[in-house]
Amino acid sequence: MSAQNQTRRITANDIRARKGGEPIVALTSYHAHTARIIDPFVDFLLVGDSLGMVMHGLETTLPVTLEMMILQGRAVMRGASHCLVVVDLPFGSYEESPVKAFQTAARVLKETGCGAVKLEGGARMAETVRFLVDRGVPVMGHVGLTPQAVNTIGGFKVQGRDPGGAESILADAKAIEEAGAFAVVVEAVVEPLARQITEAIAVPTVGIGASPACDGQILVLEDMLGLSPWAPKFVKRFGNLAEQIEGSVKAYVSEVRDRTFPADDNVYKPKK
Ligand SMILES: Nc1nc(=O)c2c([nH]1)NC[C@@H]1CN(c3ccc(C(=O)N[C@@H](CCC(=O)O)C(=O)O)cc3)CN21
Ligand SMILES: CC(C)C(=O)C(=O)O
Ligand SMILES: [Mg+2]
């Protein structure tokens, strides 16, 4: 990190300045070694609360704790030296008041060393976003499908299909931008709404299932690698890691069973 020849890490302000330019590219990351592999190629890494579903097999993100987020945030920071690292504030750790949100965000910044936090919600969270930004916490917003509200939404459903819904999501994005967010994740909304939001706000929109009209894109790493057993409809699988893992495991099992592994190269020999 301190080596002179290393370029400085991307900041929240750098991301903000990318509005309307070359698309911002982001992936989720929960893990040091995969963070190290993807860090040189993307602009930011999100330690998403989706880790509850991806790493722990939970059905929603609601049970995810602040301790889980901090532990994986620290792991990702050890692997990443180039990207901005953004950590999701988990359900129940910030909604009740701006003060509570600041206490949570301060722990995340202190204990992980990450450069920004993300929280879900629009107009109702604007006061909190302002409170955090005024106190030195860069905040990424998240509107549209907000998975922490799965129980009030009634499922992981596309948002903004009806005009009333679209209008309120647009108002949410504007409120978060005006409150000082440096970027806004727009999740699972119809293309015209994603375009409208992107044109209406002065900070970048980062889409997930929200069309190419956004200023950038993010996906869950394990989904795009083809490791997740299921993925939302908007995911494109750029790899098939599940098949590769299965192939490697079958080869290992077969070599252990026929005693071709461990071979000479894999065995300690006594000193001559
Ligand atoms: N692995 C993973 N990938 C994600 O993208 C992701 C998570 N987990 N967990 C948190 C949220 C939840 N997300 C989701 C989850 C499911 C759908 C989904 O299955 N949607 C249906 C449409 C359902 C409907 O409209 O009724 C789809 O077919 O895409 C969408 C987003 C996105 N996030
Ligand atoms: C899908 C992204 C935007 C997220 O919030 C997460 O991974 O938790
Ligand atoms: Mg999340």
Automatic annotation (TrEMBL):
Cofactor(s) recorded for this entry are: Mg(2+)
Give, as in the UniProt entry, the pathway in which the protein acts: Cofactor biosynthesis; (R)-pantothenate biosynthesis; (R)-pantoate from 3-methyl-2-oxobutanoate: step 1/2
- This protein's major location comes to cytoplasm
Known InterPro entries for this protein?
Pantoate_hydroxy_MeTrfase, Pyrv/PenolPyrv_kinase-like_dom, Pyrv_kinase-like_dom_sf
Query: Keyword annotations for this protein?
Result: Cytoplasm, Magnesium, Metal-binding, Methyltransferase, Pantothenate biosynthesis, Transferase
* Claim: Amino-acid biosynthesis is one of the keywords in the record: no
* Cofactor: binding comment: Binds 1 Mg(2+) ion per subunit.
Binding positions (Mg(2+)): 49, 88, 120
Intracellular or extracellular location(s): Cytoplasm
Q: What is its EC number?
A: 2.1.2.11
**Record: residues binding 3-methyl-2-oxobutanoate:** 49-50, 88, 118
- Please give the catalytic activity noted in the UniProt record: (6R)-5,10-methylene-5,6,7,8-tetrahydrofolate + 3-methyl-2-oxobutanoate + H2O = 2-dehydropantoate + (6S)-5,6,7,8-tetrahydrofolate
**Active-site annotation:** 187
Molecular function GO terms recorded: 3-methyl-2-oxobutanoate hydroxymethyltransferase activity; magnesium ion binding; methyltransferase activity
Cellular component terms (Gene Ontology): cytoplasm
Q: This protein's superkingdom?
A: Bacteria
Q: Which Gene3D superfamilies match?
A: Phosphoenolpyruvate-binding domains (3.20.20.60)
Top-level EC class: transferase
Indicate the family of this protein: Belongs to the PanB family.
What is its biological role?
Answer: Catalyzes the reversible reaction in which hydroxymethyl group from 5,10-methylenetetrahydrofolate is transferred onto alpha-ketoisovalerate to form ketopantoate.
The record ties this protein, via NCBIfam families, to:
panB, PRK00311.1
Q: Read off the HAMAP family from this record.
A: PanB
- What do we know about how this protein assembles, alone or with others? Homodecamer; pentamer of dimers.
The entry's protein name is 3-methyl-2-oxobutanoate hydroxymethyltransferase
Record lineage: Bacteria, Pseudomonadati, Pseudomonadota, Alphaproteobacteria, Hyphomicrobiales
